[in-house]
Amino acid sequence: MNRRSLILGLSACVVVFFLLSLLTGPASYGPIDSLRALVVGGDEAAAIILREIRLPRALLGLMVGFALGASGAALQGFLRNPLAEPGIIGVSASASLGAVTVFYSGLAGASMLALPAGALVGAVASVLLLLGIAARHGSTLTLILSGVALSSLAGALTSLALNLSPNPFASYEIIFWLLGSLKDRSMVHVAIALPLMAAGAALLFASSRALDALTLGEESAASLGIDLRRARLFVVGGVALMVGAATAVAGAIGFVGLVMPHLVRPLTDRMPGSLILPAGLGGAALLLAADVSVRVAIPARELNVGVLTALIGAPFFLWLVARTRREAF
Amino acid sequence: MKADLPPRGGDVRQDRGGRRRAPSIAVALTLSFAVLAKAEAASPARVMSLNVCTDQLAMLLAAPGQLVSVSELASDPGLSFHSALAASYPHNRGLAEEVLVAKPDVVVTGAYSLHNTTPLLRRLGYRIEEFQYSQTLDTIPGEIRRMGMILGAESRAEGMAEAFESELSRIGSERCGTSPTAIAYDQNGIAMGAGSLVDSAMQAAGLRNIAAELGYSGMAPFPLELLVEKKPDIIVLPEPLAETPALADLIASHPAIRALGEGTLRIHLPRGSASCGGPFVIEAVKVLADARRRVVSCQAADRHLP
């Protein structure tokens, strides 16, 4: 399949699930009425529901899914590790920890800007730590196991921070930070995540040539004129910005960044650089579809979307581990 | 500390005639307590309260020095209307050991909290008085009188219960016009449905609780979309329970609620006024009735006569 038709096909999927997301919800409006309310206003309640509740939710599904898919592709390429993913290697959990620490301590008042600021710090710290580990031990499994340990630690510290909060609701929010959700978000969330994600995407796209060259090994890449320090900075910065922003507004949603690169890779030229965009689009389509499903499946008691992505992703991860080990030995 | 939070309400639907029957129930309760009272010789010298709801009733009715300690939540302004009163009492954490050390004559607590402590203390021979969590206003005067009976403060309790009943009927008599719609929309988008104390307070203030009308009972997750679609005349929004933030509090400032505009009145209930049954619930009813007056214009002609 050529790249153009792959991108077009994935974009079409994103558009379909985006529209489905806009049309799914407890308030009963027909598709035509809904879209008219979104575009021209019309019935006041319908316009508020579409513009202030469903549109931000659909936009965030698209943005967060794209960020996770693209980050997964970049991490797998950069670490030359098929099991790398922001959720598994602990970037999402560390971003949650950062966001939780800054927000619930009340250091920034109740300002929502505390969320992305804290999440970014957490994400940067975890990526740097993992890069340090990866630089010392080249093994695929060492990195993944370190990531799993980091993920558990960050999760435990997140729970601790929430339990220590004097606000009685904080401890119930552990599930949001560990198994994200897109419920009742608003355009404020879109506004705080969008600029960070755009900057992150720009960094990742700018590093795609370096990622391609790195498939030949670091020395060959250097001999091809790739500035490895710059490439590392761009990948770390790009992943931290995208995952940090995604986690700040939607909690830690796992496995999207693992599954999507593997699903679309066979349809590309297998170069990591050219995988970022299709993996991002695929991630957006997957998360939008998952978010529609959780709303339809149990409408009264909505499931966290991270539960569903884990239900799909964890068995996939197991299969991938088994396959990777077979190939390695 | 979660053990002391109000339980998820059952399906106790409040029938519309409930309030009118209330006086006869109250008389029956008073009579039965009068019989009990004879069995009780003197008022107990030392009383200990383990639940934020019994704390407040006890603080209002106990004689000086009679109440040895109240629960920690009694000082939580988000849950306890009389949190200021609690400052002058020692606090307990609801542990059986604390009761053994304090050796009170009577322990008052809630029926829904401390599932393990209460049976243990009973087995050890303590006199435990359990109070059900009030889910309707009708039961409040009875609870006040019962606490009065336990503490040997019957006349103070009687005065307090009568004041509550007369305030309630005064508010009921001042209703007029059509009943506006309302919803109490708490943290995390939890609505107070049928059978909740807030639902009962709304009925007393002459408001139609849309959550109850849509079949939600107790504390139930209520979709924000549905709230916007039904566009109630009054939204009762929560105030944060603590100084430090939580995502749960953000729902009150969601742009969709703000976008409902001037047609929807946004109010807060006095903090702690509807988390327990007690005489202070009348403050919540007053605020609701006041909101009703701001929404429905009152003309002398259609005033309800008591």
In short:
Chain A is mainly alpha-helical. Chain A is 74% helix and 0% strand.
The tally of domains of chain B stands at 2
Uncertain stretches of 5 or more adjacent residues of chain B: 1-23, 34-41
Approximately how much beta-strand content do the residues of chain A carry?
Answer: under 5%
Low-confidence stretches of chain A: none
Whole-number radius of gyration of chain A?
19 Å
Oligomer: heterodimer
| Sheet/helix structural class of chain B | alpha/beta
Notes on the protein architecture:
The complex is a heterodimer of chains A (329) and B (306). Chain A has 329 residues and is mostly helical. Chain A has one domain: Orthogonal Bundle (ABC transporter involved in vitamin B12 uptake, BtuC). Chain A is built from 14 helices and no strands. In chain A, helix 3 crosses helix 13. The longest helix of chain A has 35 residues. The relative contact order of chain A is 0.17. Chain B is α/β, with parallel strands linked by helices. Chain B has two domains: 158 residues, Rossmann fold (3-Layer(aba) Sandwich); 126 residues, Nitrogenase molybdenum iron protein domain (Rossmann fold, 3-Layer(aba) Sandwich), CATH 3.40.50. Helices cover 39% and strands 13% of the residues of chain B. Chain B has eleven helices and eleven strands. In chain B, the strands form two sheets. In chain B, strands 6, 7, 8, 9, 10 and 11 form a six-stranded mixed β-sheet that branches. Chain B starts with 17 loop residues before the first helix and ends in an 11-residue tail after the last helix. The interface between A and B is medium-sized, with 35 and 32 residues.
